[in-house]
Amino acid sequence: MKYDLHSHSTASDGSWRPEELVKLACRQQVDVLALTDHDTTAGLEEAKQASEKHGLRLIPGVEISVTWKKRTVHIVGLNIDPAYQPLQQGLKELRSFREWRAVEIGRKLEKVGIENAFEGASAYAKGSLITRTHFAHYLVEKGLAKDMRDVFKHYLVMNKPGHVSGAWAGLDQAIDWIRGAGGQAVIAHPARYRMTSTKLRELLSDFVECGGECLEVVSSSHSRDERHIMAGFANTYNLHASCGSDYHGPENQWVALGKFAEFPEGCRPVWESERWQTPVEFSGSIKDSVA
Ligand code: AMP
Ligand code: MN
Ligand code: MN
Ligand code: MN
Q1: How confident is the model at residue 214 (pLDDT cuts 50, 70, 90)?
Q2: Hey, which of 16, 64, 96, 132 would you mutate to test ligand 1's pocket, going by the most ligand atoms within 8 Å of its Cβ?
Q3: What distance in Å separates the CA atoms of residue 25 and residue 121, rounded to the nearest whole number?
């Protein structure tokens, strides 16, 4: 069985609609796909219908933006029931913050002579929630950077003209929403935060204390060494291991849906956890959908 437990659609900053993503997953021989859009579950209904049509198991998921000790950390929720109201309420607040932040990013970019960035990014978001990825697409379109990586480095990160600091959910809040929705919380791409091992241990112990269960040991953004380090942490903190591409679309030629390394030895895959054995039933209860 091939599992890809981290992916994005046009409901957030991915380039394929949920149905296209599911079809692509089938072509890539993925058996179990989690759709984990940033701060929204709007793509799940379409993805679920497509998964039934094309014969793939869809895991309803989400990737929640969290501020932990002034750093942004991403917490994936797997096997969530999207009808759980406190989760939806929390995500709605995060999306309001995103709207406000996007206007601010636009203002800040204007100060360095880049006009209409908010409008440009909004056009890429096409009515779905707005992310820095949408700003990046616009700035690349305007010829301000050669590619996505370059645009983030020069415009959208700390100490750069378009940076606005985040005030996302608390770690405890995000985990409560996920667990309340019947799901399992996963620390996404842990090596991407560039934390010292002391900081990462602090995060892991806070995460476990709040009821987190799983660490994304394998991610497209992890090197071989990072996978082994994370496998070690998963075992030390008694966490299940997850794996995912974090696929966003064809623009990033380095990442493919369903294509990444195996777990290092000794990992306990999240699909062997007890929770995983009872699939989530969800339907019709999600009012928002993909634009
Ligand atoms: P946001 O949640 O709006 O702050 O946007 C974060 C998203 O930007 C991430 O989920 C990635 O998809 C994307 N991103 C962040 N850093 C980079 C980077 N260096 N290169 C390409 N995409 C990035
Ligand atoms: Mn993203
Ligand atoms: Mn992420
Ligand atoms: Mn992601």
Answers
A1: very high
A2: 132
A3: 27
Instruction: Tell me the CA distances in angstroms from 2 to 45, 54, 107, 256, one per residue in order.
Output: 22, 16, 44, 13
Q: How far apart are CA 96 and CA 148, in angstroms?
A: 25
Average pLDDT, the chain: 96
The per-residue pLDDT for range 3-16, each reduced to its tens digit, is: 999 999 999 999 99
CA distance linking residue 225 with residue 230, whole number of Å:
9
Place of tokens 């900053």: 13
- Sorted by sequence, the CB contacts under 8 Å of residue 46 that are 6+ apart come out as 17, 18, 19, 289, 290
> What is the rounded CA–CA span in Å between residue 281 and residue 278?
9
SS3 31: coil
Q: Which of 9, 99, 133 to mutate to test the pocket of ligand 1 (most atoms within 8 A of CB)?
A: 133
How far is the C-alpha of 76 from the C-alpha of 39, rounded, in Å?
10
Please determine, for residue 284, whether its predicted confidence score (pLDDT) is greater than 90. no
* Per-residue pLDDT, 279: 87
Q: How many residues are recorded in the chain? A: 291
Q: How confident is the model at residue 290 (pLDDT cuts 50, 70, 90)?
A: low
Place of tokens 């309340």: 180
Q: Which residues line ligand 1 (CB under 6 A)?
A: 13, 38, 65, 131-133, 148-149, 152, 248
Tally of CB atoms within 10 A around 281: 8
In sign, the C-alpha dihedral spanning 193, 191, 238, 2 is positive
Paired strand residues for 3: 32
Lowest average pLDDT, out of 68-82, 175-189, 276-290, goes to 276-290
pLDDT tens, residue by residue, 18-58: 999 999 999 999 999 999 999 999 999 999 999 999 999 99
Residue found under tokens 């599992």: 3
